[in-house]
């Protein structure tokens, strides 16, 4: 259980009652970055957020919800799609990242387009190839859709169906989406042993990967160029699209590796179909450039050399990051 109900928040004259929910932070996780004081989690707020996450009316065609591209079984990624697929089957230019442990991140999207979870949904909603809508029109549709007036009234003190409450509810839901019950977590909590291979894989991971894929989130949250050959058609500049600094060219947010076994294809443009391909890339495919991360440029040799045996045990370790409790938790499902 991640959530505990901690009693009545409010029970005022207009009949508004709601129950505050406390986010239980796993002991081995970094601190929560999301400002829970500004948006306290409540039972009804989270429930409304879940409904909105799976609501097709959020898109212009009425058919694409957040959950269309963020599928629970695949750690809320878009299974089988190199690039995201939105309204009218239009294709985006980036691979859909997982939605998990959002409460602990500083920046959202591959290039950190926004530093605030509450503002993030505006991006997919207004992007032409994603949901192609406006926030105003979404709110109008929700006002006219059965059930939502009551759900908003139960979730927020002012009870308004408006964009602020819409965004706060979505955040409340996403904040509760904590993945911390993989075999790896059970190992950290001394509840389960790793096999010999997994143990060796962990040791190599700590030596060769954990400087970027750091902490229990398996990301240090920074933006780096890990040496992918830029895709000439897209020439996605990554972080510098946000900062405008050439020094940020081709840098992308270090992704979490939690649930990595179920989130193929990999990288910001989904170019690799398997973890074997990812490790082969680090071993011999890293391309030099002005912004290549110094960690991948050691004594004249590029990348992260590994033997076949090391790659095998690394993958065994990465498989321990699959969290079936999270992938099957019906608090996060469409129901
Ligand atoms: C058409 C597919 C699609 C839809 C619909 C969609 N997303 Fe996404 N989502 C993506 C892609 C692609 C990215 C990465 C965007 C980028 O890096 O530019 C992303 C990124 C995210 C992130 C940031 C994750 C991270 O690690 O930084 C969050 C949070 C998120 N989406 C939530 C939502 C919510 C909430 C909705 C509904 C309002 C939604 N998404 C709708 C495809 C989609
Ligand atoms: C210098 C920092 C750095 C090091 C060291 C590093 N990575 Fe990465 N890794 C990244 C960045 C940045 C990305 C995203 C790159 C992109 O998509 O443009 C990434 C992406 C990945 C992905 C794809 C994740 C996804 O969701 O698409 C996997 C898997 C991965 N790394 C595994 C590893 C392993 C295993 C090691 C050690 C052998 C390692 N990485 C070492 C920075 C690093």
Automatic annotation (TrEMBL):
Keyword terms: Heme, Iron, Metal-binding, Oxidoreductase, Periplasm, Peroxidase, Signal
Gene3D superfamilies: Cytochrome c-like domain
Pfam families in alphabetical order: CCP_MauG
Cofactor descriptive note: Binds 2 heme groups.
Entry comment on modification after translation: Binds 2 heme groups per subunit.
Molecular functions (GO terms): cytochrome-c peroxidase activity; electron transfer activity; heme binding; metal ion binding
Chain positions recorded as heme c 1 binding sites: 66, 69-70
Record InterPro entries: Cyt_c-like_dom, Cyt_c-like_dom_sf, Cytochrome_c_Peroxidase/MauG, Di-haem_cyt_c_peroxidsae, MauG/Cytc_peroxidase
Cofactor section: heme
Binding site for heme c 2: 209, 212-213
Domain Cytochrome c, chain residue ranges per copy: 196-322
Protein name according to UniProt: Cytochrome c peroxidase
Taxonomic lineage of the native organism: Bacteria, Pseudomonadati, Bacteroidota, Flavobacteriia, Flavobacteriales
